[in-house]
Amino acid sequence: MERKKYAVLIYPGFSLQEVTCLTSCLAVWFGEPIDTIASEDRPYISEDGFSVSPIKTLDEAEPSDYACIILPGTVDPLPALFDEKLIGFLRRGRGSDTLFAAISSAPALLSKAGLLDGKDFTAGFFMQFADAFPFIDTAHFVHRPVVESGNTITAIGMFFREFAQCVLERLGYDVGDHFMDPSGQEHTPEDLTFHWSEEDYQEFLEELKEYTDKD
Fold this sequence. Notes:
This protein is an alpha/beta fold. Helix content is 27%, strand content 15%. The strands form two sheets. A seven-stranded mixed beta sheet has the order 5-2-1-6-7-9-8. Helix 1 crosses helix 6.
């Protein structure tokens, strides 16, 4: 069975926090590699000051290469929104089977690329922002935390957990009935006591030898 491929688009001021719930599950829980893709081969600074370098440029990738392309929000969406290389890359995804998952302000990028034409969507931008751009079809704007429509999933930034769950389930992953339950509920000590399986524990011991045998 061919392995699925995933990508995160990065651009100036992108939000790591809005997508790492999803990407960490893909990478840590399910062992999936994730490509970071950007317009230029240079470091991009996230909104919280982390420097991230892309694995590929947009010229080296096609949307159809991926089962899902993840678009984080950004506090300043204008640099990405007016990056014609980025919008052109997304436009090439029209008609593909690729799932586009965009959160916070990122649905505006999908709108400009035509990927939300005729589709319901949500987003975390201000409505005056939407009114400034005729390509954002506010008639299809739905005021819900997460909206799934065709090959797109859109979400408001504060609902990053629900966004991650929706995307993972759409991609066929079993995340259980209590996916990353929010804090505030009561837990017993047993709930908060964790044990490896015997197989995982033995794997850890073998890995530990690589360090202890050096002493």
